[in-house]
Specification:
Largest sheet: 6 strands, mixed
Oligomer: single chain
Domain ABC transporter: 6-239
Number of strands: 10
Number of helices: 10
Protein name: ABC transporter ATP-binding protein
Helix content: 25-40%
InterPro entries: AAA+_ATPase, ABC_transporter-like_ATP-bd, ABC_transporter-like_CS, BCAA_Transport_ATP-bd_LivF, P-loop_NTPase
Radius of gyration: 18 Å
Keywords: Amino-acid transport, ATP-binding, Cell membrane, Membrane, Nucleotide-binding, Transport
Strand order of the largest sheet: 6-7-8-3-9-10
Family: Belongs to the ABC transporter superfamily.
Structural class: alpha/beta
């Protein structure tokens, strides 16, 4: 296994009176795509939000590239090269696709200042982003919005992408486009942590996998190993398959 870019050690998270994460231990190897799987309510989204500082860990330690980020505010974590695409995608519906992209390109004051080569690369991954460049983002289909959300997260170079359920509700053709795009992102050297319910999507892309249940990691290892063991899949994921 490669050196870990992101590590969680004994992370607990409380939200109000509710104790959601119960000592999460997770390693995300540098340059690989790590799948975070589990039944609904297992704590996957809470884990992502805790990493990003949107919810604060009540106990434990989170390190990014060897630096402790447990108590850092979200903007500071993002400034370390971390991008987060939430399950609801976070698209600004009243803005155009171009304006959504510009908001994420912190080094650019207008669209003409966005890195041209990088934009061409993004358009090659997600042609719909170029096609609807001047259209209101709220008018896009669900799949097109997801493409925009991921494009926005990579408009500037990132060390780590954290993405919550990118295939949810998408047509098979769009899912295949997503798989190809994430494969290309992985080949470019980006480290990816991805929550997913679609096991076929997960096994086609994942290098490593962690499975959550009841706020804890109950299995961690290679994705290929889990993909080949139907009995293990059933015991860990049950009806989620």
């Amino acid at each position: 296994m490669n050196e870990s870019l992101l590590t969680l050690e004994g992370v607990h998270t409380h939200i109000g009176a509710y104790h959601i994460l119960h000592g999460v231990d997770l390693q995300v190897p540098r340059g690989q795509l790590t799948m975070l799987l589990g039944r609904n309510g297992a704590g996957k989204t809470t884990t992502l939000r805790t990493i990003m500082g949107l919810w604060k860990a009540s106990r434990g330690r989170i390190t990014l590239d060897g630096q402790d980020i447990t108590a850092q505010p979200t903007p500071q974590i993002a400034g370390r090269g971390v991008a987060y695409v939430p399950e609801n995608m976070g698209i600004f519906a009243d803005l155009t696709v171009r304006e959504n992209m510009l908001l994420a390109a912190r080094s650019a004051k207008n669209a003409d200042q966005i890195d041209e080569q990088r934009l061409k690369w993004i358009f090659s991954l997600f042609p719909a982003v170029e096609k609807f460049w001047n259209h209101p983002a709220g008018k896009l289909s669900g799949g097109q919005k997801q493409m925009l959300a991921v494009s926005r997260s990579i408009v500037e170079p990132r060390e780590l992408l954290i993405i919550d359920e990118p295939s949810k509700g998408l047509a098979p053709a769009i899912i295949n486009n997503m798989i190809e795009a994430f494969g290309e992102l992985k080949r470019s050297g980006v480290t990816i942590l991805l929550v997913e319910q679609n096991f076929n999507f997960a096994k086609r892309l994942g290098d490593t996998v962690a499975v959550m249940d009841n706020g804890q990691i109950v299995h961690a290892g290679g994705m290929e190993e889990l993909a080949e063991d139907e009995e293990l899949q059933h015991s860990l994921l049950g009806l989620a398959l």
